[in-house]
Amino acid sequence: MTNHAETPKGHDEDGNERPGFRAFETRDDLSKYGSNALLLFLAQMRLGIDDIEAFAANALTDHSNDKKSDLVAVVNDGSRIVVAQGYFSKTAKPAAPDNKAADANTAVSWLISGPLETVPDTLRGAAEEVRAALLAGTVSELEIWYSHNLPESVNVQRELDQAARTADALIKREFPEADVDVTSTEYGITALEAEYARTQAPILVADEVTLDVPGGFELKADGWSAFSTAVSAAALRALWSTHTTDLMSPNIRDYLGMVRSVGNINFGIKETAKSEPENFAIFNNGITILVNDYELDEATSKLTVHGVGIVNGGQTTGAIGELSASEASRLDEAMVMARFVKCTDPSVLQNIVRYNNTQNKVEATDFRSKDPIQERLRNEFSKVPDAEYRGGRRGGASDAIVRRRGLLPDSSVAQSLAAFHGRPNLAYNETRAIWDNDATYASVFRDTVGARHIVFVFGLLRAVDQAKQTIMAIPEAGRTDAQKRHAEFFRARGSNLLFVAAVGACVETLLGRPVTDRTQLKFKKNLSPAEATVAWQPLVDTLLSFSKNLAPATDQGLKSQDKVARALEDFAAMVEATRSANPVPFDAIASSTLPAATTPGAA
Length: 603
Hints:
There is one protein chain. By secondary structure, this protein is α+β, with helices and mostly antiparallel strands. It has 24 helices and 13 strands. It has helices at 19-25, 37-47, 52-59, 98-112, 121-136, 154-174, 189-200, 233-243, 265-275, 280-283, 314-321, 346-355, 372-381, 410-420, 424-429, 431-436, 438-444, 451-472, 481-490, 495-505, 507-511, 529-543, 561-578, 583-591, and strands at residues 71-75, 80-86, 141-147, 181-187, 205-212, 217-221, 224-232, 287-291, 293-297, 302-312, 335-343, 522-523, 593-594. α9 packs across α11 (314-321), α18 packs across α20 and α18 packs across α22. Residues 1-8, 255-265, 358-362 and 599-603 have low confidence and may be disordered.
């Protein structure tokens, strides 16, 4: 990746290495995002994004009329909203400009309040998504970020804190039933390095902690030892008050917060701790904690641990930690089953992190990783050039921030399949349901879906995203009228998946022949995902002319099935009426796609 600054940002002025910025500089896939590249790197670290290109396509809002928002994302199944500013300086400065931090006030105001018709087109889709999540009551956190490559400053944080107060007041006024914690953070050099260190270090909290325990037992093997016991929930709450999410450096995900619903895991943990603390130990699965070392003083029943990293039980700890003083009045009665693990074998340590994340609601894909269909697909992908498909299996703890060339992220594979086969709403709004619900999963990952068909539809999605990036990279003043229409379409949330659905809906017209089973469509040559993207690009660029026919379905985030259906019909009608006028891109795809024509004279 070309350095964004005149001096290497992988080292400070004294020559000391900055491993976080060094890792960022290796990410040549982010360079095309310009000043937002570092912001996306931060998002990948903080949010665990597996497909940064798909995330950027929907979350970036940077535009001359974006009302001071560079990125808006609704993540974690609607429980978390992130509003972010990005800045990258090419010269050394003592601090980032605080006026850009102040812009966050403007950003949250436009996103949360006021008539939607007054919100600029460039931001309206984001505002609709934010307000819908707040209205649904799923949001527990709204985070305001300012990402840059300079030292942090008091003035910047002061402006961000004001933006947080503004957002909090607006939410309470506009959405009085919502229960949302609003935070603001400046991610400059120090904070970004700390975030990177957190992704690398299994144990970030190095403190020595002494706990009262009711005895216990120890197991040992080559490279590891473990002590099983129980600890006071009050002690966990005290740890959380000091270290918060740093406690969970080995955990795949941070504490997810609490959606106020009786069906929410963390809400249930909190309610049990409040109302039935004496039964907490038998209602809860307990926690697993990585430590650098531990010693038990049997005479005093005290366990001293050196370093604390909660690898399993982060949701338990976070829910207990969020209890107010009044809610925690009986917390001394609650005990939590706990296992303290010391491990010196790096390969075993990585597997401890991987396999101890099944209690929490981490990723729905985890529960499909051993499914026969995913096993088959992984085997088939071993024969696809320059492709990596994990099918629900997790990589290492730091994989989210390392460029994986040829990786087909599980989420994007599921989305492209669902969209191409006629369900863009499912693809955009209910991605988790694809993995969670047996019937939905079976309808998307059918027995007839093969690796090369996935490359076919995934390449289409990537080509659509590439078309969007190309359009958005053109300065607004330099866009033609057609390009302005395309840009307006792409600003809508979920527009890329709707476009994939439109292509799937009229695939017979595109290919010029009947298609009895769309899951059998694939390229004649065994193309890599990158080659598939290139193969689709000319046709995608041609079909953009009809994007205005799809626009009416995007005003509600693809949630209106009737609007989606009508939009797909209108798009298909336009393709059918005009295919003969420009047959070259259509015929190119038709001639390179299987199943081939079976009748004389067919395309």
